[in-house]
Every structure is written in structure tokens, then in C-alpha cells.
Fold:
Amino acid sequence: MPGTYTQIATFEAVCADPYRIAREVAEQGRRVAGYMCTYTPEELFHAAGYFPVRILGRNSGGTNQADGHLPAYACGFLRSALDMALAGELDFLKLIVFSHTCDTMQNLADIWRQCVPGVAEVAITTPVVVGTGHAVVYFREEIARARRTLEQEAGRIPDGRILESIRLYDEHRALMQDLYALKRARPACLTGRQMMAAVLASFLMPREAHLPLIQGLLAELEAAPAEAGDDRPKVLVVGNMCQNLDYVTAIEDAGCLVLDEDLCSGSRAFAMEAQDMGGPLDRLARMYLVNTACPTKHQPGYNVGGALLKKAQAWHVNGVILLLTKFCEPWGFDYPCLKKMFEGAGIATLLVEVESHQPPGEQFRSRIAAFVEMLEAAP
Amino acid sequence: MSVEGESAAVYYAGIDVGAANTKGVIIDAEGALRGFAVLPSGVELASAARQAFEKALAVAGVAREEVGAIVSTGYGREIVPDKTKVVTEITCHGRGAIAQFPATRLVIDIGGQDSKAIGLGPSGAVRGFEMNDKCAAGTGRFLEVMARALQVGLDKMGPVALEAEEPATISSTCTVFAESEVISLLTQGVPISAIVAGLCNAVAERVHGLAARVGVQPEVTMTGGVSKNPAVVKAMERTLGISVNVPEEPLIAGALGAALIARDLGQQE
Structure:
């Protein structure tokens, strides 16, 4: 059993009331900027004085108001996010940032502009083809455009301030990568839920507040005695959104151990590598156009499945759970290749399509439990 | 204390608490079926589980104390009293099918509320599975709703469908919309047998989609209550293009698998 850590209790509390901090920050007079995509250069907004908070949608309840604007085949994550805005639950936002990723996200920006009054909007077109020099130039210009928009609202943003924000975020990302590495090396040091709470809280708290908590947690974990061996099957969770901790609990309750994840709302948010050359916008542009498993991006010569498979093999996972937000079309296109690649290498996969803005149901539990039985029976 | 060579007879139980029915199975130390019971699950799942167990014991002529291990499965698997272990219905149906048709590579289980396709490897281990998702089309409940709408007894659906000269086409993939489609066909004067045959085809075609994702390999064994409907079995064979095994008691395949897993547990000790 993992130990008790005060930092984890804080993260759990943050996740239980995800926008409490954003609301308090707004009441204290700091501007709050909402964003949804991992590839949003948060540092720019941070440098402009905003508190960037990630809008993750709700964990339960309907999307009645949003359903009037979005068809049923738009993903529950974005329907839920829009529903929150229409219901006034995001009234602490001064600004909303849209990154162009999937069709739903792009169209949501237009709907938001028309239907959610009183919120400024910044749209950043993230290139679809990443990893080329042209993409970096294009993206830098997009960030520069966003900067000009922000400067009209918030005054001049000096280069030095952006560099300071980059340093803060770099330090935070490095610590998060350390935490992931420690969790892989000592899988039982934290439960999957505790790990995910630490991750999700980082999107919902100011980085400057989250950073020392992670530092403290890492120090305590490193000082704690190594855990006893754990013979539960180890799984890698790959997919898009998992903003509801109950999904991780349900997965581990079925008898497996979540060793790591490659999720949009997870490790991918900390995969950017620090850049030490060039001006701040250059650095941001290069940093955010990383090799990624985001299915809306394409990098010539980069094999998403191959990269994931390499991780799965290096970490000796027994199985891969492909946790797919229902109706995420880009991800659906990638799925057959991923399945083929993992299974070709002898790693079992399970596809579970979830409405992640709803709690996990019995079907979900049955599937995971059956998958765990399958892994346990494997030679 | 048992004397050497004279150990007490030991039996094993499987209890499958499904969405529609609760099934209890008792097997002996050799794995032979000694008794079973099927009861509607109702709303008191724990009580249904207890009753199915007691009834199966009575049919088998076995005392409670002689049961070495109990494995529970099905949607209500966690609620079963005195269980030794909980195992999902995926694993149990696979095991139950293999026990009756050892060459099974694909199990199609159509139960009251869900349908599953379970792929098995040569050793009988589950190699992959698919379940219907958030929708009752392609399940027993679909046929129940339609039986009510058409005023045909559920157990008569199969024989009535087999009388049809030309099955109607049911294109709705939603139970509720399919019901309105059925009513519309009735108003057009389409014979009931043709409509029922169309419904049986619809179930088979829907489940074929699940099976295709797992991979259709012979032999195919159908389990679950719906495989008691000969028209669905026939439609399944037609759509898959291969013949299908159906156990004598398809409803208890999951509970039988559970009992066999209980026997493994008991004999491991």
C-alpha cells in the first residue's frame, strides 16, 4: 500500500472541486484564461498575467444545453465543456484559448464566440504537420499573433517575462517527468489514482503552487522505503482524455496496476523538451511541436505506434488499455494501426470507448476485469 | 478427518447473476454436470443468487457442506453470498463453451442485456473480446420488447420466424425505433412471421459486427438465452457463413464455466 502524502490529499481535493481555485483567483483580481488542448503555449498567457486553467468538462451530469448546439456525435468532453460555459459555470474566465486540433474543437470556437458572452477569445492554429522548419515558423507567427491580441487586453508582455514563465514551466515539466519515472521504477509507490490526481491538479492550480508540492512529494517518495514487489499485471493506458479519477480507480480495482499513461490529459502535457536557443516565441514554437501521439498531428517519418510500442516494451507492460473518448474521430483512425502493432508484438490490447464526462459504468468494469483475467491467464 | 482413500465427495458451484436470469450450476470433482437451476433475477439479486444455488443443490442432491468452492459471475457477480472468487462472464462463457465444444475458437453469447463475442486461443484462453455498448439492440431484451409488441410468446419467436417465406428488413439499429418500424410494418400488412424473421436476422447481423472485430474462426459456439431461438442461430450461421454449435443448455454456459473455474481452485488447494 502506498503511504499517505499531504500533497496527494491536496491534489485529490483540487480534483474534487476542479474550478474552485480558478474562481478564487478571479475573485482576487487575477485574469483567468481557459484552455483545452495540451499544445496551448500556456507560458505566453502566464507571462501576460493570466492564470491558465485547463477546462476538462464535468465528471457527471447531462449536456442538455450544449446538445442544442453540438450534434450527438461530437465528443462528450467538448459537449460537457460547452455545457459548463452555457450554464455559467465558467463565468470566472476572462479569456478562452482554442487550439486548432480536431473538427469539433475548431467549430466549438465559433459556437463559443457566439453563445458565450463576455469572454475574449484567442484562437491559435497549431500546424497539422509538425516537426518541420516551416511548421515552427508558422507556429511562431501564430504565437506572435496571440501575443498581440493579449497585449491589447493586458498591456505589453516583455520577452523577459515570457522567458521567466518558460523557465517556471520547464522546471515543472522536468519534475513531472521525474515523478513519472519514479512511478515506473517503483510502481506501487503511488496508486494510479494518486498519480492521476497529481497530474490533473497541475492543470487546475497555478504552476507556481503545484511545483513545490511536486518537489515535496518527490522528496518524500524518495525517502520512503521501497515497496514490496507487486505481481499485478501492469498496464499502459493510451488514449485521449481521462479527467475523471474514478476511471483510474475502476481500472486498478479490476486487479491491475496502471504503470504509466500516454494521454492528452496526462503525460503528453509534460513531454515538451526545454529549449535554450532563440527568442521566447521561437522556443515556444519548437517546444510545443513535439513528436506526439495526438492523432490530429502528423510528423513525416515519425511512427506514433512504434514509439508507444517501444515504451510498452521497455517498461515490460503486460497489456495496453486504449481508453478512447467516444466519437474522437482522429483517434479512431489511429486505433487499428495501434492495435495491430501492439498485438503483433505480443502485447494484448483492450479498446474501451468511454463517455468520460460520465462516471464509469458496470460495462466498463466488466471489460477491464475480463481483460485483467485474460492477462493473468496469459503464459 | 478423512481416512486416506476415502475423501469426502466434493462438488463445485457456479452462480451467474445475469441481467435477466440467475443461473446456478453444480458439478462434481470430475467436472460432470450434476444439477442446475435458472430463475428470473428480479431486483433482489443476492436472494436470486441464493435461491439459484439452493435449487441447483437440491436438483443435484448435494448438501451445501459438500461444495468445495463457489465462483460467481454475471452483472451481479459481486453480490453473490459466500463466493470463493469472482470471475467475469467473458472468461466463464469461454470456459463453459470450451468444456462442451473443445474446438471452439469464437463464442457468441447473447444474453438478456448484452451480447459478446469472445475469441479463444488454441489452449482455450481468451485472446480478445467485444461487448455491445450502451445499446440493447442485438440482445435478448430487444427480442423481448418485440415479442411483447407483436404479442408472440418469447419462446415462440424462433418457430414463428422459421415459418416466414420472405423475412422483412428491419433497418433501425435502435430497439425503440425498431419497435416503431415493426408497428409500421404491421400497418402495411406484412405477416407477423416475416417481421419476426426480420428481427431475428437483425439480432444476428448486429452481433456479427462484434464477432468480426474479434475475428471469426471455426468452431463457433453460441451461448446465452437467445441461442435457444433457432431462427437467430440459423441467421447467425447464414451471416457468418459457417455452422454454429449450440449447447443443450445454452443459458447455463456461463455458470458452468464458473463452476469449472471453482473446481480448478478447489483442486489447486
Remarks:
- Chain A has a mean pLDDT of 94.
